[in-house]
Amino acid sequence: MLGKAELLDEIAPLNRGLTATQTDRLAVQAAVARLEDRNPTPDPLAATTQLEGDWLLLYTTSQELLNIDRIPLTSLGAIYQSIRLAENRIYNLAEVSGPPLLSGLVAVAARLEPVSNRRVEVRFERGVVGLQKLLGYVSPSQFIGTLQTTDKFSLLQGVDFSINTERQSGWLEVTYLDDDLRIGRGNQGNLFVLQRV
Known about the structure:
By secondary structure, the protein is an alpha+beta fold. The protein is 24% helix and 39% strand.
């Protein structure tokens, strides 16, 4: 699909949005809008096979995510969003590269509730920050399995904390979905372009 290739070409050199200029952001917004107009899945929340799974973030305007790259002596690695519809859960995982043996992980777990055929309310419940090695991190799917079976990591593994769902909530709308690309927009005006892992 031409519009999809155009969007992927626009975002490829932008390092998930870290190096995007205002001109770049406008070009990406225009390419996204053209693709959203041709969304092949008008009812994405009903397309469970397409929506479910692990997604790699290709581009975002979310400064909250991109600012992880500003931690001294580290750089932002891959960012994943994993959707588990059977449990009404969504997980965000950001890998953080650092000095040898000091690569980190920032993970957030949230409950999602469909409110339309394209939009879900997201209520953040739990955060985990620590070193990948101590947390036993291998991959997003593996770590989500660990999160689901571990009530709380020990302080020797990382910082595991509850999040006040009343203050940390929002919505996410799926504006484009096909077999391997998903575009979403959030309540703070952020744009997310993700590719199936």
